[in-house]
Amino acid sequence: MNIILTSQALIFIPIVFSVLIYLFNNKFVSYIAYVAQIFLTIFSFIMWKYLIKNGVITILLGGWNKSIGIELRIDNLSMLFITMTVLIWWLVLIYSWEQKKKDYKFLFFLLFLEGSFIALLQSNDLFTLFVLIEIVTILSSILIIYKKDGKSLKSGLFYLLFNSFSMMIYLLGIILIYIKVGTLNMSQIREYILANLSSNQSVYINVSFACFIVVMSVKSAVFPVYEWLPRAHTASQTSVSTLLSGLLVKTGIYGMIRFLYVFNNNNIYEFLFLLGAFTAITGAIFAISQKDIKAMLAFSTISQIGLIVISLSTNSDIGFIGAYLHIFNHFLFKSLLFLGVGILINEYGLRRINQIKGIGRSHPLLSICMIIGILSMTGFPLQIGFLSKSMIKYSFTSNVKLLVFQFSSFLTIIAFIKFSSIFFGKPEVIKTLKKNQIFSITILTLICILAFFIELKFIPSFIRINGSDISSSMVYIIKKINLNIYSKMLIKNIIDYFIMVILGFYIYKYFIKTERRVFYKIRNYKVNYQNAILLLMLFLSVTIKIVN
């Protein structure tokens, strides 16, 4: 099969099928949403097979000169995100099908968003990337406000306006880089920068780099530009929250990785560590303080994004692979938890953690699935979270970074001890759950279990896609993680984990459960739109100073 057509089919199949669903407005036509997913699954498999055998794919569209044309680039990072996209859309379709199969507008926006997001992942020039990020932002905003109540409308508009303002900064970065380099092609920009490393980098290049990093920080909800995420997560439907937290929030991480590679600016990495540390710790503290169960998951997403940024700040192959692993693993276990929580909210109409009781008794299968997600999130040694967190931990050469990592991980354990209270007690009402929703969460749980056994084995092939050989240090770290799982070290790691859990339980019981005033203040702290813009501009100013 022609690989160029395959790459473009990944973009246009969901878009074309979304238009057909919208035009025909027929419940039978709606089923072509599944046909689209089948095609995307097949084509994704073909792309993986081609990449592993032949390496990175670059496609120049329209026969234009590379410096002014639209170029597609598909590498290991692109395919990782494309795989996540296809998988999460499968799960969301199955999960929401009984409620949404006759909602043709929802299916239209959902599939159109999928095609647009896959196009974004293949883009290799700055302006096409800008256009597609804007399209994805608008479609996401529509899905956030789709409930059509006051809270979702307000949250959706905040998300749209704040992200749109940040994209003005992105445009400034485009202008500056074009003035200096004369192209928006990311590969050519990298070649230009590498060719001029011996001389002092232009202020134009450094300021444009700062603009891009700040915008991607907004997209990934890094503190202090995070406010849109908890608003959007708590106000939107469960299927949309799952897309936002599992995948779309990582658009910023995807862009950040791209720009770190293109601009090759070593001044940024210590600053990234500070951003990641602040994000990981404060995100976990905000999660602990929440009473709304979706808000807790939203802030824990911010905390995990902080860990990914810390991993990137090491500027090492181990750190980057650790970030890739945690991007994928967080996508799995956080989607699992959001879908599980969505089932509870939809069936019981309750959102406060202290109001949800006895899920372990009333819904044992759902509880098992969610507990696997919690164990993964908190780094239990026999779950996927342990693999990626171990890779991140071993990338550190500084005790300070290791201490921040361990502290934020401990805070995460405390947050999910609080979350786990929903499994205990006597259920007041027992309701029958929808089969399609239980099926989707069960499938996702099985994928989490399967991923634990194959992730480390796939890393060498994943690295070679981009034409790199696996380093001796990476081989050593993979062996070390395997020893932690398949040797006597496993018992020690499990004991260490449960010591952290026991310590976390007592801190929760005697300090957090009593609902001290400080947690009330943290929970009710909000940043309004005007202050969010001020924080964004201050963040930009500091970043410009750092990179120059």
UniProtKB/TrEMBL annotation:
Give the source's domain of life in one word.
Answer: Bacteria
The entry's localization annotation reads: Cell membrane; Membrane
Membrane-spanning intervals of the chain: 6-24, 31-51, 77-97, 104-121, 127-146, 158-179, 203-226, 238-262, 268-288, 295-314, 320-345, 365-384, 404-425, 437-454, 489-508, 529-547
Q: How does it sit in the membrane?
A: Multi-pass membrane protein
Keywords, in A-Z order: Cell membrane, Membrane, Transmembrane, Transmembrane helix
GO cellular component term of the entry, any: plasma membrane
The NADH:quinone oxidoreductase/Mrp antiporter transmembrane domain sits at 123-412
PANTHER family listed in its UniProt record: NA(+)_H(+) ANTIPORTER SUBUNIT D1, NADH DEHYDROGENASE
Would you identify the family this protein belongs to, as annotated? Belongs to the CPA3 antiporters (TC 2.A.63) subunit D family.
Name of the protein this chain belongs to: Proton-conducting transporter membrane subunit
Q: What is the lineage of its organism?
A: Bacteria, Bacillati, Bacillota, Clostridia, Helicovermis
